[in-house]
Amino acid sequence: MLNELDPTDIGILKLLQDNSRLTNLQIGKAISKSPSSVYQRIKKMQDQGYILKYGAVLDNNKIDRGLVAFTHVQLKDHSQESLRTFESQIILSPEVLECYHMSGMYDFILRVAVKDLNTYHDFLMNKLFGFMAVGNVQSTFVMKEAKSETAFPIMPEKSRK
User: Could you tell me which residues are beta bridge partners of residue 111?
Assistant: First the structure.
């Protein structure tokens, strides 16, 4: 799908990943295009699903979400219905920032952010264990965040060869 994007589109995506608050005028100046051309390209990339949403990256410690855990979940029942039910229910929990259906020993990996260990325990007891028969859970806690990126490295097709 990246083949459908030209170097100008890729330049716009790189700029938006770095700062989604840039105006079309600012982006246009950076890539030598008019603001209307930038607007049309961004609109096209949104319509085609390249750009899913815009957001701000927050400091989790300043918003009382200082404890981050990666929670590996293995369900007792592996039927399609159980997997779908778990997924549809767990993504409703505001503590769950990411949910991945995985291959391997665990069915799901969750990235959970909460205030503290007591809040995490409450999440496990009242939410995770509350709506589904969970077979096994392994929690690992983030001690230090060495790298956290939201931007994907992208480059034109010609540069990747």
Answer: 70, 98
Distances (CA, A) of 145 to 24, 55, 60, 124, 128: 33, 20, 11, 23, 25
Average pLDDT of the residues of the chain: 93
Locate CATH 3.30.70.920 in the chain. 60-141
How many angstroms separate the CA atoms of 56 and 67, rounded?
A: 19
What pLDDT, on a 0 to 100 scale, did the predictor assign at position 2?
Answer: 61
What CATH number belongs to 2-56? 1.10.10.10
Q: What is the pLDDT of residues 84-133, one digit of tens each?
A: 999 999 999 999 999 999 999 999 999 999 999 999 999 999 999 988 88
Cα separation of 20 and 22, whole Å?
A: 6
Q: Taking Cα atoms as reference points, which of 80, 83, 110, 87 lies closest to residue 98?
A: 110
- What DSSP letter does each residue of 27-95 carry, written as one string? HHHHHT--HHHHHHHHHHHHHTTS---------GGGGT--EEEEEEEEES--SHHHHHHHHHHHTT-TT
CATH code for residues 60-141: 3.30.70.920
